Amino acid sequence: MNNKNIIVFEKVNSNVLIYIFFKFYLKKKNKKIYYIYSTSKLSKLIIKIYRYFGFEFIKLKFRMIDIRNENGEIYSLIIQNKELFDFEKSYFKFLNLIVSENKENNLNHYVAKSIFADFVINKNTPFRLIYLINVLNQIFDTKKAKKECIFYIVNRPCLNLYVEYAKNKEIKILSYSKYRSQIVYKLIIIKIYIKIIIKSFIRKFNIFEKLNTSNNHNYKLFCERQYQPNLILNGEKSDLLWLLNSNFLVKDTLYDCKNPKEVSKLNKFGINTSVNLFSLDFQYHKIIDYNYIYSLFLKTDIEKSNIFYHLCNYEYLYNKWLNYFKTHNIKIFLNWYKYDSSHIPITDAINSIGGISTFFQPNFEGVPFYGCKLFTDIFFCNSKLSVFIDKKTPSHVNHHVITGCPNFMITSEMIAKSKEIRRKILNNGAKQIVCVLDENSAPDERWHTGDQLQKDNYIYIIDELLKNKAIGVIFKPKFSYGLRRKLKNAYKLLEEAISTGRCYVYDQIEDKSQKFAKTTPILAALSSDLVVHSHLIAGTAAIETALHGIPTILIDRESAKNSVIYETLNKINIYNNWPDTIKAINENLFRDKKNELFGNWKDCIEYFDPFRDNRGSERIGNCLKDLIDGYKKNLDKDRIIEIALKNYVKKWGKDKII
Known about the structure:
Blueprint lengths: L5 E7 L1 H12 L6 E7 L2 H10 L5 E4 L15 H24 L8 H10 L9 H15 L8 E6 L4 H9 L3 E6 L1 H27 L15 E4 L17 H4 L8 E5 L2 H10 L2 E4 L14 H9 L3 H26 L2 E6 L7 H10 L3 E5 L14 E7 L2 H9 L3 E7 L9 H16 L4 E6 L13 H17 L3 E6 L6 H5 L3 H9 L3 E3 L15 H5 L4 E4 L6 H8 L4 E4 L8 H5 L5 E2 L2 H12 L15 H4 L7 H17 L4 H16 L6
Parallel strand pairs: 1-2, 1-4, 2-3, 4-5, 6-7, 6-9, 7-8, 9-10, 10-11, 11-12, 13-14, 13-16, 14-15, 16-17, 17-18
């Protein structure tokens, strides 16, 4: 190591700073230290003191939106689309030597997805470290630079994989805090067992039993919640669209509530309920060979400690759900959230009692993302395109059933509400109305595309609204709560736009308890002449509005060129920035001669939904009814699925089952 080296520390705390002093000061080595983040006020104080010893500490500044490959695509997309798959493939070579999987469970897949599917926003995840390696590669141009870049990171599992990956980018990785990392994993494992003891105690004394009202003995379907048990088709989101739009019986449905108020409402409707996944019995079924696994726990090898942690977590979740399913006589599990590993032990648990795991697709994925890897018996997909992407992921799905998008049926109430909003905007001078759909964001632009990208979704179009009195704007935030924080000083600009009477914001009342926005994009779009979806990579809402014949365009500032949307949609409907988008809006909405292809999806919409009849939820619910009816006839699982799929083919066509 010489003074020409670039030295970067992932994390700077008091322990690391002591290490740096002895490593670099006493040995008279490079005193210019870059770091990603510091963890305490004490470390910041020590950094100031170290300056008197000639040290120069520089916190690296970067934005996710700026970290791109040579084609302009942001690297966070590449990691999800390609590199996490490559890492998992390499990791399996090691994992298969440690854990033996059998037909009854997906242990290895659970461990791998638990490790690699975590988000970049979380520290010590593979996503975060792979991303940081590429950050250093771009900032210091390590391929071309004559200096060696040495990256000191906290010790973690899969270290050899990162070392090899970084080497290809001319970055050398060294680790520290080895024993501390092992202790952390062991403490987490102990925490899991404390959870088991507490839950066993709760069930033994029937604590909270009175809150649970699932007391009939029918075979049931459990609907995983998104905390939106809306029972009215009014344009607001609901976990129960498949039930409200189909022939499935409410008495055969179980919904887990987060508070007693929901229990009363759902019970009056006829839906069975539980609270916080309560089960009467907590029998613990051992899945793992504990003599062997206990030996892993005693190992100082962080790799094996990490595997042991995930195996314990799998067994805990498996037992938690198995007892829940048995308590409430559940035979079908319906879910949508596939983006982490938690659904894998649930699928294994329902399969162990001869039940069926089912998933539906609320979100469009334009490329195979690692986190989308799914393990289930039946996956209700929107289209053959969705099946194609799912197979490339690759998921472990026994049957793909094409249902079309599980959207709302447009009701007279929704139409009346949208007409009233449109009337008010037009009465204040607008000639054309644009609906803008934003996305989620996080304030720290290092780990997310950031708030600024979302602020732009408001600033540019509001500036145009204030200049052009013929335009009206409807904003549909993905998360209305936090909009004021996200927009900051631009919120005053939004208030000015609203005061013109030509701007409307859905879900204006901020509700901390509401995790997701209540209003569907369709309701907002019904009042509009054009929809602008501001993020092509998350194009679900754009597809939903286009399916209803509402002209829709997309903005792609992340350069998601690998998305199938680029292969299917006319390029006149895709823009790289807001200025170009506004120019296109003015050229096509306010002139006599407009391009007929602008906002028009008619030539490609069947790729996203072959039915285009807004009955996706109905098809899902009716197929589920065939499944639950099979259990009522005491048929076995395979026969039940066979009959249900035959019925589906008879009604909707052989090409709808893959």
